[in-house]
UniProtKB/TrEMBL annotation, chains A, F:
Residues 10-94 form the NAD(P) transhydrogenase alpha subunit C-terminal domain. It catalyses: NAD(+) + NADPH + H(+)(in) = NADH + NADP(+) + H(+)(out). The chain crosses the membrane at residues 6-25, 65-85. The lineage of its organism: Bacteria, Pseudomonadati, Bacteroidota, Cytophagia, Cytophagales. The transhydrogenation between NADH and NADP is coupled to respiration and ATP hydrolysis and functions as a proton pump across the membrane. GO terms for molecular function: NADP binding; proton-translocating NAD(P)+ transhydrogenase activity. One of its GO terms (cellular component) is plasma membrane. GO terms for biological process: NADPH regeneration. Its EC number is 7.1.1.1. This is proton-translocating NAD(P)(+) transhydrogenase. Keywords: Cell inner membrane, Cell membrane, Membrane, NAD, NADP, Translocase, Transmembrane, Transmembrane helix. It is an enzyme of class 7 (translocase). It is found in: Cell inner membrane. The keyword S-adenosyl-L-methionine does not apply.
From TrEMBL, chains B, E:
One of its GO terms (molecular function) is proton-translocating NAD(P)+ transhydrogenase activity. It is an enzyme of class 7 (translocase). This is NAD(P) transhydrogenase subunit beta. The lineage of its organism: Bacteria, Pseudomonadati, Bacteroidota, Cytophagia, Cytophagales. Keywords: Cell inner membrane, Cell membrane, Membrane, NAD, NADP, Translocase, Transmembrane, Transmembrane helix. It comes from Lacihabitans soyangensis. InterPro entries: DHS-like_NAD/FAD-binding_dom, NADH_DH_b, PNTB-like.
Automatic annotation (TrEMBL), chains C, D:
One of its GO terms (molecular function) is NADP binding. It comes from Lacihabitans soyangensis. SUPFAM superfamilies: Formate/glycerate dehydrogenase catalytic domain-like, NAD(P)-binding Rossmann-fold domains. The keyword Nucleotide-binding applies. Residues 146-310 form the Alanine dehydrogenase/pyridine nucleotide transhydrogenase NAD(H)-binding domain. This is NAD(P) transhydrogenase subunit alpha part 1. Belongs to the AlaDH/PNT family.
Length: 95, 462, 374, 374, 462, 95
């Protein structure tokens, strides 16, 4: 990675982090768990990395298997995370 | 890299941002979560289209396996087991980051003998380190909450020095791993160390404090994803990871405050050996949960029915006027708002009536005990203002109590109970009130007039 | 110039035309003041208090010789007989109701100003004794009612059960009616009000009362703030509305006086019968016939299980304040009309013109003339 | 089981032990109820009302044969004489003040419960007739005072001058005193309060009253919520403080009863003399000797220019509410002690033990014994 | 590009973010502004170190000239002229963007005959277009506010079609400029068009609505800076420009709402054709000055003595409770706060007393007319709440008036008079009140309870 | 400018704008004018571009003069903007 790219990525990192701070200004306690769960699902974005990593051809490669393992794990995180969050939030529907 | 793919990633990032934003409000949270899921789908699709056709099948199989497991667990689990589920999923996310980073390292360094540049190298070790801690830490948290591991805080001597030692060792291993890339041993040692650290930092924490720990680990898993983004030079990972990392820290902080903990002690691990929230002023042994004015305001705002239970403390604080203001505010928002008047609230018959009439609360908002007692269970928020004895469940349950047999307001039956009082001080009868320690009860400490004034200010903002 | 204050002779009267405080103010302006012996006693002012304030004390005959003689109530023929010829008097007169006294005043060439005839214009508000006394009377109706009622006013939720708030129904939202609303509300009652003038709705609500709106009919003519003419249809609808409300009322207060006329009957005997046992009616208008057909002047009677209070002189039940306010009203008028050297006799001036009844042996007041010469 | 309600015989009493509403509640529980003819008349409940509620009407002799006889005031010897032997009575008794009646009750083997002896514990609050009646009495003191006073309570800034608010000084912040504070404040008075129990300061202030704090002395012992012993030094300092305040007071209300003793004298004749002419004192304690040394029981007297009201039975002036609350108190006690098939006689139970005076021909009540056997 | 410089830019960006964030709160706003200034300094220094030594002197001269002018104007200007200053500075910022973009274009295309890539090209035309509008628009706004240009809305037929035509022409010119880079004519035409558009969109807007326009132009100047960032491929310009652009839009929106305008009509230009402040409802001929809740709040906050004159309108609005709140708030800030009670205020004797007692205003805060009338001239703010006749100076001065001779409260003698009423409606006596047109009198229109509730909310923020 | 750089710049733009929206969630109206003024000063960041643009050698170049003009204008904006804002905010100081 070159420095120029690093700088831009750092911009992205800094702005993203700051946004993260700003967004969670005041969550009501009732939403603590759903929010945690929902953002946990987002952290399953590693799946993108995992897919790229398993984009290896040979099954002899360690990388391939690791990537595939990562896909499974990350998918569980993503799919399970979103589904569970949705179940929780359904309960909040206004009567 | 294809510009369209990058563009898709950008859209996904924005969807994540909007999703998290919306999850701040009860009414929009579900939409938010769905938007964020759409973002994830876009990101995955954009990734899949760039892989080689031959790999597609493997990838799909893995995704299907993962989805099946994820969905099964998500729909099977009991509502009460939500926090441990989050922990479990979170752990998988952390492990995925570890796997991706090692995979990338292995591919470049071991299989293709590339020279990994220092930035990427640092990113790889960070990703492994954080991901590793997240994984085992989350597993322990899951185990504790689901009862598979001893839920108590497990403490042994020299815990902190040991953790420090392991931490330093991890740094050394990291440096070596970056310097001597060719040898995978350092990286593997680092992986092992991080896994061990994850176990050790969570094991000494008691079960009751797990939600905070999970929130923190959630933040870690975001950071792990973020560092993975640096490894792969991928923006969407960086943005999403940074969002989760930062918002997770804030959320942890908020939760800490709600539970009366300091974030520092959480970060150091092994905080709260004993649960520290017991308010000692009143000499009470009851463990209570505090709530801040803002959160209380949000609870009101998201309620559809509120019952206020005024007591002697309202009279002492002269809070009747500001409570009337609160009631007007709530009614403007279509929140059903009533007052439950206990016959002996205060210090003279009709004490509450006098004060509420002075504050111009219409008579038809005041409901007698017998008429309202059945309605508490359908009420979202009960707001107890300086009342104590008249809502003390001991009157129903404890034949030893001097107030046993006195009819009380069933405030404890409501979904959420918020109590405004100055301390854990007792009421007229001089007895403890265990309602304050109930799981659905939140204490809003402070002089009633002052806190409710702030509460009203807060609600006006929303 | 010497100002004399006579002791009131009317039955049940407790007020006095000047208090020691108002005496001081007159002295400051250079007037001399003399008070009849024991004139202030019933208002809790002793002769010493007046002397301390700078007044002299005199007998009825002595006082009657002053340049200006002040009273609360109108003079009797006998009192006029004792007065020095050509002097000035100020008091309530309701001259159109007492032709004999007017004749006597004319005979003695007395310039008689009447407090009840002071025009109700903005700059004369400080002299408006009708308002100042009606205001106190409004307060007192509620206290009388509360005292006679066998229940308490406020809603009270107690261990021994809930006491529902007293329902007060008030007829007329003039000065007295408004003060009655305010007082009843303060004590915690639920207050309903009826009046023929639609603009009183806002005023009633500004005090927390509920206005009983007669829907769908017009027919009220307002002149100078007073209801001059009300259509029969309106009155009928109003009656129906009130009949449906009076059944639930615990306390009924009627304040509808129409100046110069017999008071309208607002509460019929049938309505009284429909009321709950133990309820109370306070009729403020018994002096001019009563708003309740079966009320009795200056008496408290129980009829059909309802206590009906007919005190005609309510301000006299609050003599300390009533005298204080009346005193201010009367000296303001006096100082408007005269200084220490004599009266200005500016006959075109609105207040003089409005309040001077007889002068130089003539009946000069238009309204009084129009009634007495009928 | 048949419950009988006797008509009250005490002078000026207007209350009745059961209202039609409370009758209904007893019937629902399976009791039978009989009411003496015209027992509720003065509380505005006619015999028809009771019949409509399901009670039967009977003569005094008939009622006296019921299984349980209820009253408000204590029984006279004569009344006890008419009662059937061995039955149960519930009423106020103040047994320690009437040894002869206690003897009569013993002789007839009557189980007499006394409402004034119900222990003031949390779960007995619904039976606490002392509180329910004191509460009404507190309200009534203010209404009586306001009615007798020649001024209005609130501050009023009017065109004819400003009326300063009435100053009310209240002795004792028990149940009655607190309600008096609340009522006087509502009406707009400035309220000052003195009490020996320091914890009442907060309570007084919670109602907007100003507490007269006796600084720098301790010496009040509290037992079970009551002031048991007050040091002489404290009382002296309190007196000095009050003397300086009473001069400005327009209305003084005294509520200090000490159960089982003569009421303490809080307002001496000298203090009355120092008061303004036209002021009013309402003494709630004339039944037990009066808090004011020159008040007269059940009379309104004017002494030294001050009107002193001595009604000893204030709740009887609010019979509708007073009977309603008393009725709830008494049936709550009754239903606690018995069901339709008979009494439980759980003699170790706190409320039974506290309120049962005589039983099986014995005086069983400890406190009463301790006083009568002295 | 040097990594350190880039890092400095990153720090500057973060400082801008924190600076704006802090400017949300009165207590921190000044620090925020200073932090943002430090960020700017860092950005400038980081830029200066990379220029050639020979240019340094020119640059410094320019900076010194600019600073001198800026400082002079900033410290010279009256506090009341702040909005026009902002407009002026903003215009210069816009023009600077135009100049930089043309300069870059000229250098590359005209002097060095480079081929400008399409992204840069688009950025250049956008920057010129937006910057140009910002410049002239701001200048017109400045002129209107400072009285140099007719402050009224200048309307002529066909305004909207003309604007549309110019807009379309600008797009055409832009496309041509990007396509035929070599010929500078298109760019110059575009520049001219944008300058003209700036004039035309602002000229039809009335003076009272200028603050909203300035806020919008401020947002534009941010966008101009942002596009310049794309021209120069410079992150700090992009971040800072994006921040200002986005926050400006939000701020404009907030201001619009506060003034009851729609953002769309502002964006289209030519909204609010007539200045709307003269209240015509009551048919009054008196010309009054309106005041907003915010400004009223500032006036209260900076006062050291306040007298409230309540009247019948307070009773109608039932505003007594919220006025008591206001009084408590003021007292907490050591503002002397009293009520002047006119003997015939309201509709019955003692009307005000009843209501204020109900609201628990202590008796000693109420002062009679005779006692307070001399004190008005030493009072900073008199707040008239629904009173009219009792403060009408005609009672003193106009023998023809029906209220002549009635004693009144000398509210007009105070430094500032704020009047809360719904309209120019008359009082009981049915006469005009010329006090409302006095130079020291400001009208706060609206139902008393509602406006004072807002006022209190506003004051709590400060 | 290449596409890759453009994408990163776009990230920066989007995140920056979103942050801008988030930051101005709740400004009290009293701060409207200072905030406007303060952010106006920030928009003077064009000065960076102006400096770079005037980093031309010859005085014969149009670009140079345009750049120098831009520096002056932007400096006025920056310096004047911050100073004026500071003056306004000083008034908020509690007495
Ligand atoms: N109504 C009657 O006739 C009557 C008469 C005599 C006795 N009682 C008895 O009084 C009791 C009434 O019950 P209750 O629930 O109304 O009151 P309570 O049980 O006495 O409790 C009042 C509570 O208010 C809190 N408090 C005091 N000042 C406060 C302030 N400024 N702000 C916020 N909170 C404040 C106190 O807690 P902190 O100190 O922690 O703030 C206290 O726990 C019953 O036991 C009843 O039997 C009633
Ligand atoms: N006190 C007495 O005993 C008595 C008795 C009878 C008559 N009066 C007369 O009544 C008058 C009293 O003077 P005043 O100054 O109190 O009242 P006023 O002169 O009647 O003026 C009241 C003002 O309040 C405004 N208002 C009404 N509703 C409002 C609301 N909801 N929010 C805000 N403002 C509202 C009205 O203007 P907008 O419509 O524009 O809002 C009106 O101009 C005097 O002329 C007096 O002579 C007094
Ligand atoms: N100078 C002033 O500004 C000033 C001073 C005092 C009074 N006023 C005005 O004078 C007017 C009269 O006041 P007042 O107290 O002397 O009134 P009042 O005693 O003459 O009458 C009392 C009320 O009874 C009402 N009434 C009459 N017939 C009725 C009926 N059939 N049913 C119900 N209500 C009926 C009247 O409308 C009036 O409101 C009011 O408008 C008052 O505001 C003006
Ligand atoms: N179960 C309950 O919770 C319950 C119910 C009712 C009353 N109480 C308590 O019982 C207590 C007594 O109430 P009560 O109304 O029957 O009181 P009371 O009638 O016995 O006395 C009235 C008041 O007079 C005061 N007093 C006595 N001597 C005085 C003196 N020299 N100067 C001034 N004041 C003097 C007393 O302190 C008391 O406050 C109170 O504490 C009350 O709160 C408790």
């Amino acid at each position: 990675m070159n420095l120029e790219a690093l700088i831009l990525l750092l911009y992205v990192l800094v702005l993203g982090s700051y946004l993260g701070f700003e967004l969670i200004a005041k969550v009501p306690p009732t939403l603590h768990t759903p929010l945690m769960s929902g953002s946990n699902a987002i952290s399953g974005i590693t799946i993108v990395g995992a897919i790229l990593a398993s984009n290896e051809l040979g099954y002899t490669h360690v990388s391939k298997w690791l990537g595939m393992l990562a896909i499974i794990l990350a998918t569980i995180n993503v799919v399970g995370g979103y589904a569970v969050t949705d179940r929780m939030l359904k309960m909040f529907k206004k009567k | 890299m294809n510009i369209y793919i990058q563009f898709a990633y950008l859209i996904a990032s924005v969807l994540f941002i909007i999703g998290i934003k919306k999850m701040n409000k009860t009414s929009e949270a579900r939409t938010g979560n769905q938007l964020s899921a759409v973002g994830m789908l876009i990101a995955i699709l954009a990734t899949v289209v760039q892989v080689e056709v031959l790999s597609l099948i493997d990838i799909f199989i893995c995704i299907i396996i993962g989805s099946a497991i994820g969905l099964y667990v998500a729909y099977k689990v009991e509502m009460t087991q939500m926090p441990e589920m989050v922990a479990l999923f979170n752990g998988f996310g952390g492990l995925a980051s570890v796997a991706v980073s090692i995979s990338d390292y292995w591919l470049k360094s071991q299989e293709n003998n590339f020279d990994i540049d220092i930035i990427t190298g640092v990113s790889i070790v960070l990703s492994i380190f954080i991901g590793g801690i997240t994984f085992t830490g989350s597993m322990i948290a899951w185990g504790k909450l689901s009862g598979k591991v001893n839920g108590n805080a497990i403490i042994f001597g020299g815990q902190h020095p040991l953790n420090l030692l392991l931490f330093v060792a991890s740094i050394v291993a990291s440096v070596l791993a970056v310097m001597y890339q060719a040898d995978p041993i350092y990286l593997l040692i680092l992986t092992a160390l991080s896994l061990l650290l994850g176990v050790l930092t969570v094991i000494p924490i008691g079960g009751a404090d797990m939600p905070v720990v999970i929130s923190l680990l959630n933040s870690y898993s975001g950071m792990a994803a973020c560092t993975t983004g640096f490894v792969l030079n991928n923006n969407v990972l960086i943005v999403a990871g940074a969002l989760v990392g930062a918002s997770g820290i804030i959320l942890t902080n908020i939760m800490c405050k709600a539970m009366n903990r300091s974030l520092v002690s959480v970060l150091l691990g092994g905080f709260g050996t004993t649960s520290s929230s017991a308010a000692v002023e009143g000499g009470s042994e009851i463990v209570v949960k505090e709530v801040g004015v803002e959160e209380a305001a949000m609870l009101f705002d998201s309620a559809s029915s509120v019952i206020v239970v005024p007591g002697y403390g309202m009279a002492v604080a002269q809070a009747q006027h500001v409570i009337r203001e609160l009631s007007e505010l709530c009614e403007k928002r279509n929140i059903d708002f009533r007052f439950a008047i206990h016959p002996v609230a205060g210090r003279m018959p009709g004490h509450m009536n006098v004060l509420l009439a002075e504050a111009n609360v219409p008579y038809d908002k005041l409901v007698e005990m017998d008429d309202i007692n059945d309605e508490f269970s359908n009420t979202d928020v009960v707001f107890i203002v300086g009342a104590n004895d008249v809502v003390n469940p001991a009157a129903r349950t404890n034949p030893q109590s001097p107030i046993f047999g006195m009819p009380i307001l069933n405030a404890d039956k409501a979904r959420t109970v918020i109590v405004s009082k100055r301390s854990m001080g007792k009421g007229y009868a001089g007895v403890e009130n265990e309602l304050f320690g109930y799981p659905n009860c939140l204490m809003l400490f402070g002089d009633a007039k002052q806190t409710i004034t702030k509460l009203v200010g807060e609600m006006k903002e929303m | 110039m010497k100002i004399g204050v006579l002791k009131e002779t009317k039955l049940l009267e407790t007020r006095v035309a000047l208090t020691p405080d108002t005496v001081k103010q007159l002295l400051k302006k250079g007037f001399e003041v003399a008070i009849e012996t024991e004139a202030g006693l019933q208002s809790s002012f002793s002769d010493q208090d007046y002397v301390a304030a700078g007044a002299s004390i005199g007998s009825k005959t002595e006082i009657s010789q002053s340049d200006v003689v002040l009273k609360v109530n109108s003079f009797t023929e006998e009192e006029v007989g004792q007065l020095k010829e050509g002097i000035v008097t100020i008091s309530f007169l309701y001259a159109y109701t007492i032709p004999a006294v007017v004749d006597a005043l004319k005979a003695k060439k007395i310039a008689a100003f009447s407090m009840d005839a002071v025009p109700r214009i903005s700059r004369a508000q400080k002299m408006d004794a009708l308002s100042s006394q009606a205001n106190l009377a409004g307060y007192k109706t509620v206290i009388l009612g509360a005292n006679a009622l066998g229940k308490i006013f406020p809603l009270m939720m107690t261990a021994a059960g809930t006491i529902t708030p007293t329902k007060v129904l008030i007829f007329g939202a003039g000065v007295a009616g408004l003060q009655a609303i305010a007082t009843a509300k303060r004590l915690g009652a639920v207050v309903e009000v009826t009046d023929v003038r639609p603009e009183t709705k806002e005023q009633v609500e500004s005090l927390g009362g509920r206005f009983l709106m007669v829907e769908g009919v017009e027919g009220v003519k307002i002149e100078g703030g007073y209801a001059k003419e009300v259509s029969a249809e309106f009155l009928q609808k109003q009656k129906e509305l009130v009949e449906s409300k009076i059944k639930d009322a615990d306390l009924v207060i009627t304040t509808a006086l129409v100046i110069g006329k017999k008071a309208p009957v607002l509460v019929s005997e049938d309505m009284v019968k429909s009321m709950k046992k133990g309820s109370v009616i306070v009729d403020m208008a018994t002096e001019s016939g009563g708003n309740c057909s079966i009320s009795e002047k200056d008496k408290t009677v129980v009829k059909h299980g309802v206590t009906i209070i007919g005190d005609s002189n309510l301000p006299a039940l609050l003599p300390i304040n009533a005298s204080q306010l009346y005193g201010t009203n009367i000296i303001t008028l006096l100082m408007h009309l005269a200084d220490k050297d004599g009266f200005k006799w500016d006959m075109e001036e609105e207040i003089t013109k409005g309040s001077l009844i007889t002068h130089n042996g003539e009946l000069v007041h238009e309204f009084t003339k129009s009634i007495l010469n009928k």
